Amino acid sequence: MSSLKESIQYLKGVGPKKASLLNNINIHTVEDILYYFPRDYEARKDLICLNKINKSGKYLIKVRINSNIEESKVRKGLKVYKCIGEDNTGKIRISFFNSPFIKNLFHIGREVYLYGEVKKSFSGLQITHPEYKFNETEYKNHIMPIYNLTRGLNQNDLSKLTYKVIQDHITIVDEYIPECIRNEYRICDIKYALKNIHFPQSIEKMKISKYRLVFEELLLLQLALFMVKNQIANEEGVSFKHKNEVDDFIKSLPFQLTGAQRNVVEEIKKDLECDKPMNRLVQGDVGSGKTVVALISLLEAVFNGYQGALMAPTEILAQQHYEGCIKLYEGLDVKVELLTGSTKAKKKEQILNDLKNGNVDIVIGTHSLIQDKVEFKNLALVITDEQHRFGVNQRNVFAKKGINPNILVMTATPIPRTLALILYGDLDVSIIDELPPGRKEIKTYGSTEKDKGKVYEFIKKEVEKGRQAYVVAPLVEESETLEINSATEIYENIKEHYFKDYNVGLVHGKMKNKDKEEIMNRFKNGEVHILVATTVIEVGVNVPNASIMVIENSERFGLAQLHQLRGRVGRGEYQSYCILINNGKSPVAKERVEIMTKTNDGFIIAEEDLKIRGPGEFFGTIQHGIPQLKMANLFRHMKILKLVQKKAEIIIKEDPVLKSEKYEGLKKKIINEFGKFIENISL
Ligand SMILES: Nc1ncnc2c1ncn2[C@@H]1O[C@H](COP(=O)(O)OP(=O)(O)OP(=O)(O)O)[C@@H](O)[C@H]1O
């Protein structure tokens, strides 16, 4: 009896060499082949007679071989095998590269179906390295799958193998979506879906199959996430008692909390009082005041006798949080330390000791906090800032340093609820949807290279009024070095030609931490008037006196990123401006500028970003720790995702661990597909 887990190596016609090629594209078992879906399809024309081919193009032909194979060596490593084929209307030259086995297959008189690019020239017809088949039934399908390949493997090989696997193994694929769900959502059964996703007899049938496979994949993922959430909810955690000292701290702040901040603080307080570990995501637009919410939460831990940790994505931000923390906690008996990659060895050792023996209450840092060496006495609250830079797994490594610690994740990247449920399905979500009072709308303008002189004049005027400006260098995704070069160029150019009488600073990712810190401090205290920066300043940097942001080559940034960058201004009482120097000609670049000039609302921008980028990477889902999806696309299939989420919620409410018989198949499949992922994200 064959099994879906059978290794492909033992399938007829595979062998170790082809198996290792297939392994390169993550195909190891029969099941993997069935679930290795085509990336596209090619609709094939009907069989054509040779004399009907009037111009070059892709054709399906049927010919008789009428010459022996002629082998010739073109150069080292390249041999060509040629022969002639004919039908009743004409002749065609056929050639293959590096395919010695052709000699055994193409004998004189044998009929063969060929599919490929036919060249028509004055010397006649020529087909090069075509697909070939000897059996007409294999060409019954005119819609042929196109798979992603790896070097050494061709479409012909893979589609042949898939065809054979479907023929031989489809009967042993068990249905795992219960009939009631299939009926409710009019979903076809799995055998039909697998057959027709690879070799559809019509576009309609392919669509029916695709719908099923998308639905299924999203359902499995959403159920997995809900199950994890339930599991966390059932774990024992540390429960805090709310302390009046925390209220006193809130009263001592230099500002009143906004209503939204108060609500979130209240939600967190409730979570912390409960004996289940908190697992909450706070989503707040740029500048909405998330940091203070983190600082309040950390105090709840400290006043209950526990330790807390706050992890930031960049050193600049960790440093800023540390400074803010020291300032706001002034007068409190709370020991805070900063631990980053560049903390000096001796200091580091001391902090590590103090964390272990409990002499430090709160540690703020970067990735260094998740290193093995860092041990805590009684870590009970972990706050990670900007979750999207970390991913679920890293968060969990960190979380494991405490006894089921409470987890708070902060993100400034607003995402629609549907996506939040998938990306953070294991978290509760709080939203800070109100900005501190007195903030003025950031006025945003699009500009071009040729008007840059005017833009710099405008900066000058603002600086003369006492404000400061950021000039962001173009993003160069492929190379940090190129990015730094262009930042340095801009820095030198504007320093020399436009702002001789002002202090211009430069900050980028490869600078020594000490230098970075120094320049940021000089910018914060107003000594540096204009700061040229790479995207290191993208997240979190808070200098309320800065009122202008110029983004060079804004077409290279995504909308969400532009919004983040723009959020570095408008953080104080002053009217702020953002100028996007757009040198891109594409309509998308123009559209982005238009959206940015129209709205300051991060939620609207996030939605627009989704629309523009469509299936593109709004966020890398891999970064989030979400397993890569084979068929579904979280953006393109938003409608199906909504349906699935409703259903998944109902299922989990009715049967939290899917123990009823009807869900047996689903559960098995979830463990099979997402077992590793579930293990990783369970705390
Ligand atoms: N309720 C409030 N009233 C007035 N100012 C506030 C309030 N809450 C926070 N602030 C101030 O607003 C500024 C932005 O706050 P914070 O840095 O916490 O924003 P954020 O949400 O972390 O933004 P980002 O995601 O851009 O980093 C800070 O200067 C902070 O002191």
Automatic annotation (TrEMBL):
Q: Which class of enzymes does this protein belong to?
A: isomerase
- EC numbers listed for it are 5.6.2.4
Record key words, sorted:
ATP-binding, DNA damage, DNA recombination, DNA repair, DNA-binding, Helicase, Hydrolase, Isomerase, Nucleotide-binding
Keyword check for DNA-binding: yes
Residue span(s) of domain Helicase C-terminal: 451-611
Protein's GO biological process:
DNA recombination; DNA repair
- For the keyword Protein biosynthesis, the answer is no
Q: Which InterPro entries match?
A: ATP-dep_DNA_helicase_RecG (IPR004609), DEAD/DEAH_box_helicase_dom (IPR011545), Helicase_ATP-bd (IPR014001), Helicase_C-like (IPR001650), NA-bd_OB-fold (IPR012340), P-loop_NTPase (IPR027417), RecG/Mfd (IPR047112), RecG_dom3_C (IPR045562)
Which one Pfam family would you cite for this protein?
A: RecG_dom3_C
Instruction: Please indicate which superkingdom the organism of origin belongs to.
Output: Bacteria
Q: Which residues are in the Helicase ATP-binding domain?
A: 271-432
* One Gene Ontology MF term: 3'-5' DNA helicase activity
**Annotated catalysed reactions:** ATP + H2O = ADP + phosphate + H(+); Couples ATP hydrolysis with the unwinding of duplex DNA by translocating in the 3'-5' direction
By its UniProt entry, which NCBIfam families does this protein fall under? PRK10917.1-3, PRK10917.2-2, recG
The protein's matches in PANTHER family, at most eight in alphabetical order, are given as: ATP-DEPENDENT DNA HELICASE HOMOLOG RECG, CHLOROPLASTIC (PTHR47964:SF1)
The family note in this entry says: Belongs to the helicase family. RecG subfamily.
Q: What does this protein do?
A: Plays a critical role in recombination and DNA repair. Helps process Holliday junction intermediates to mature products by catalyzing branch migration. Has replication fork regression activity, unwinds stalled or blocked replication forks to make a HJ that can be resolved. Has a DNA unwinding activity characteristic of a DNA helicase with 3'-5' polarity.
What is this protein's name? Answer: ATP-dependent DNA helicase RecG
Species, as recorded:
Anaeromicrobium sediminis
